[in-house]
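Dear Dr. H.,

I hope your travels went smoothly. While you were away I took the liberty of generating a structure for the chain from your last submission, since the lab meeting agenda had it listed for discussion. I wanted you to have the full record in hand beforehand rather than looking at slides cold. The sequence, exactly as received, is reproduced here:
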Amino acid sequence: MSAPAWDRSRPSASPSESSASAGRSPAFRRPASSSDSLDSSPARTVAGVRDAARRLRLGLLSALLCLPLLAGLAAPAAAQTPTANPDGSYTVPQDWALKPSDVPARTKFRLLFITEARNATPTDIATYNSFVQNEAASGHAAIRPYSSRFRMVGSTATVDARDNTMTTGTGVPIYWLNGDRLADHYNDFWDGSWDAQMASDTRDENGNAVAGNKHWTGTQTGGSNGGTKHSTDYLGATNVRQGQWGTGRNPINEAAEPSGNVRRTLGLSPVFVVEAPPQQESVDVSLIWTETIPAKPEPGGGNLGDDNRFRTKRVKETDSGTTDVHFYVRTERLHSSKLPFRVCVSGNATQSITNSPQPEAGDDYQLVVDNAVQGRCVDTSIPANARYK
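The corresponding predicted structure, in token form, is as follows:
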């Protein structure tokens, strides 16, 4: 006899199989105008004027009452910043549009983009942060909800870039927005050399490649000074330090030029963390032949042969709703006597063994045969002259 085969869909039943005596397959249940004539008389004229005035007043009142409603319709609510995790990070889904492809679940990362150009004359870091945030708010749809949390990578006379961007300590990987990884951690970000620092690597607030090779930072790099303000060329000074793209260039601290010139800036996101995959509970279903079938002729020819085999199937479901998972044990051809087998379950899911028609609260599944709730194992068989159970 050939080994039984799995068949998720019920095969066409033979007359003998459709009878009640054939039994049902094991299943898992889961917890689931009027017109006015012309009249030139004084009385008629006065009455007409009064009536017109009354209608005018009523019309104005109705229009004024509608104004608040119309104003409400015309002003959509501003998007709110998502709630941060206790550590200040923001959870994003695994299919988030800007999640780097090499970042797995439960892993943190940040995104960097390059802005439009501006001067570097303001002395207050808040001015630069607002500039970056406004660009993020009009950028890629995926970052708009987080726009108020973006910061400029720059230093003023009183604020260091690493404090403004919260890039002290070991930190997390940093990627170009919709682009490649540029730094493995914060020290790597401030060491004066990035993994992706060519002009072609850069991305704007929409995740698109941009032109230009210089940008304001007012910051120095390397060692313990990495991320701190330049001694003389900080934002708001006469001359301001800038980074530059290209091989052998420093993306943070390359040279300085007058602050009245127009250059781009860099915007850094808050920390994002990829959500964990949904919790799944599993049930192992093993089909075990319980006896050796002696060789004997089969209807239509062929031998059953000696068989002592098993097949295993794993059933996975997320913990939601009620679902019946049916399975059928099927042989490849008819056999002349019933074929016993045993179904056993194991795994970390909680089995319900009460006789209620649905699993109780807190339980995950029931093992059911012929509408009867079973224990961990159940002995049953494929009827004679049938191919499935």
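Two observations you may find useful: The chain has four helices and 20 strands. Residues 162 and 227 are 5 Å apart (CA to CA).

With kind regards,
E. W.
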